[in-house]
């Protein structure tokens, strides 16, 4: 399984990143929520190998959005 998406930058300090790894998942009122993923595409295959799926992801990331199918 693989996924590709875009997301607006989420600027945080190193301390905020470390805190996010160890706290109970709730967003304090004074802290903005993380930007939501957009333009998401997900792949999954029981027939193709890992390498084939990763190659498709790499192609998707290199292809301009206007020319994707």
Topology:
Elements lengths: L1 E5 L7 H9 L15 E6 L6 H13 L7
Antiparallel strand pairs: 1-2
Overall pLDDT confidence: 82
Structural class of the secondary structure composition? alpha+beta
Number of strands: 2
How many domains comprise the coordinates?
A: 1
Question: How many strands, what sense, and barrel or not for the largest sheet?
Answer: 2 strands, antiparallel
Multimeric organization: single chain
User: Order of strands in the sheet with the most strands?
Assistant: 1-2
Order of helices and strands: EHEH
Using the alpha-carbon principal axes, give the shape.
Answer: elongated
Estimate percent helicity.
25-40%
Short description:
With 69 residues, the protein is α+β, with helices and mostly antiparallel strands.
């Amino acid at each position: 399984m693989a996924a590709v998406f875009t997301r607006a930058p989420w600027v945080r300090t190193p301390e905020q990143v470390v805190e996010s790894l160890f706290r109970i998942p709730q967003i304090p009122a004074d802290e903005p929520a993380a930007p939501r993923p957009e333009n998401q595409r997900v792949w999954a295959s029981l027939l193709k190998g890992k390498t084939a799926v990763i190659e498709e992801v790499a192609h998707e990331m290199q292809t301009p959005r206007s020319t994707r199918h």
